[in-house]
Amino acid sequence: MTKIDLNSDLGEAFGPWRMGDDKAILDVVTSANIACGGHAGDPATMVETLALASERGVVAGAHPGFADREGFGRRLIPLSIREVEQLVATQTGALMGAAALAGARVRYIKPHGALANWAADERPVADAIIRATRAVSPELAILAISGTELEHAARVAGMTVFSEIFADRGYLSTGRLVPRTLPGAMIHDPAEAASRLIGYLSSGLMPTVDGVPIPLDAHSICVHGDSPGALAMAVHVRRELQKAGIEVGPFLQPTQENK
Fold first, then answer.
1. CA 138: distance to chain centroid?
2. How far apart are CA 167 and CA 183, in angstroms?
3. What is residue 1's predicted lDDT score, i.e. its pLDDT?
4. CA–CA distance, 60 with 177 (Å, rounded to integer)
5. Angle, helix 230-243 to helix 190-203, in steps of 10 degrees
6. Gene3D superfamilies of this UniProt entry (predicted)?
7. Cα dihedral angle (163, 156, 107, 6), rounded to 10 degrees?
8. Cβ atoms of 159 and 133 closer than 8 Å
């Protein structure tokens, strides 16, 4: 592989509470998954983050999650399928409204946290996210965890879908991420993360904590913006990818609003 996108989950501040260094990370990544007011974010943060992304030519996507600020969207909320549709549609619509004010454009949807993990395993949940996305705008693409039900559902629906892997998360032999409560869930060493990614990009095989490496597709690499040392991780990963001859660029062509 000679080209890969680098994305990060951003816009996760709320009122006076700040999360991460979005300005600095937006100088490194090529796509930004922006919180929509569910697990994090507020109107001012959404508009500001979208404007910053647009100024830098970073492609913006919606990052809807469970309305659970206390749990940062990482706890499973047992919604009905209809409620999942409503959550995704309204949060994405809110970000698109903020984009209109910011002079930006929302190009794709990437579910957050527990919602993304739920959609990874449960096809009805994945289908609900696809229906909500198409209802809001058929032009929106899907960014899905590689090898999941969401990825498959988007393809069956004929949507534009891109697959992602994670720079700073461990993998199980099932293709799922190691739960954050277990050892090996997080990779904190930028050198280790970069080495693993370069090995994956040359072989197509992702190391796992409980078995042999597994094949995964990837158009994008996620570096979590809320992790300690997130900026150092993003900078190091990008530099090492480029040193290995891998171009870092967005999976979607930036529009006029993103330039």
1. 19
2. 16
3. 61
4. 24
5. 40
6. Glycoside hydrolase/deacetylase (3.20.20.370)
7. 0
8. yes
Tens-place pLDDT, residues 90-144: 999 999 999 999 999 999 999 999 999 999 999 999 999 999 999 999 999 999 9
pLDDT in tens, 144-176: 999 999 999 999 999 999 999 999 999 999 999
Structure token digits, residue 18 = 């700040």
Residue whose entry in the numeric block shows the structure tokens 């590689």: 146
What span, in angstroms and rounded, lies between the C-alpha atoms of 118 and 74? Answer: 11
Query: Residue 169 has which token pair?
Result: 């998360």
* H-state helical runs in the chain: 22-26, 43-55, 81-102, 113-121, 123-136, 149-156, 190-203, 230-243
Query: CB–CB of 91/38 below 8 Å?
Result: yes
Pairing of strands 106-109, 247-248: unpaired
Can you read off the two tokens belonging to residue 19?
A: 């999360």
Six token digits for residue 113: 């946290």
CA–CA distance, 18 with 28 (Å, rounded to integer): 19
Cα distances (Å, whole numbers) of residue 20 to 12, 72, 95, 135, 224: 8, 14, 19, 32, 9
* H or E, element range at 11: none
Contact 234, 28 (CB under 8 A): yes
